[in-house]
Amino acid sequence: MDRATPADLSPIPEAEAPRDCPRCPRLVAFREALRAEHPEWWNAPVPAFGDPQAWLAIVGLAPGKHGANRTGRPFTGDFAGDLLYATLAKYGLSEGTYAAERGDGLKLKGAIILNAVKCLPPANKPEPPEIANCRPFFEGSLAPLPTVRVIVALGQIAHVAAARALGLAPGKAKFGHGAEHVAEDGRILVSSYHCSRYNQNTRRLDARMFEVVFERALALHSESSV
Question: What average pLDDT does the segment 88-113 reach?
Fold first, then answer.
């Protein structure tokens, strides 16, 4: 088993959940079962990954079983990560080569990836109390990132978590692919369909649709820098 802690790997260690976070009994039981089945996997809350001086925060739902829960890095080692990291590379938000493993040397530039829920949920579906239990960690991850001006939320759960963190009422700040909402402090939330295998296979989301969201984020960043 990888004995590193989430804080050991994080650019914002003060915001991370402990390796054996006890807050969600269902997720703890799932974690323990996977530790027994796959002792070589990460099997712990997944820390943030990226640039602590980022202008862009990307918010995902939760670790994937064979992705981040296995490797210990968001979106690393699963189908969703292939599109996300290819898109970040295309727009100059990463350096190095993504090789689907935590030790591949990849670095993000101007971007950081966070998850609304840090632990793997069964069937990739966290329950409302689990999302609420993880909210202090998620919101605590945004707090030490004063240079973040644009947040891209991947999927509705991530959108709601980010909206709450920005002080936006989720009932008014509606989710939609490409939807934009501006917080009182000027930070901008841009939403996208999640880059999951399901959404890509059903053509709800394709690479070009995903790229447009990041092109908009870059445009907003340029506008704010003028």
Answer: 98
For residue 114, what are its two tokens? 């966070």
CA distance linking residue 188 with residue 182, whole number of Å:
5
Give CA–CA dist 219/121, Å, rounded: 34
| Cβ-contact 62, 116 below 8 angstroms | yes
pLDDT digits (tens, 9 = 90+) for 185-209: 999 999 999 999 999 999 999 999 9
Give the DSSP H/E element, type plus range, for residue 60: strand 56-60
- Dig out the tokens for 158 from the structure: 């991530």
Three-class secondary structure of residue 188 per DSSP: strand
Over residues 153-175, mean pLDDT: 96
Distance CA 79, CA 4 (A): 25
140 touches 41 (CB < 8 A): no
Cβ atoms of residues 72 and 10 within 8 Å: no
Instruction: From residue 175, give the alpha-carbon distance in Å to each of 37, 123, 171.
Output: 37, 22, 9
What's the rounded Cα separation, in Å, for the pair 81 and 153? 15
Token reading at 172: 């008014």
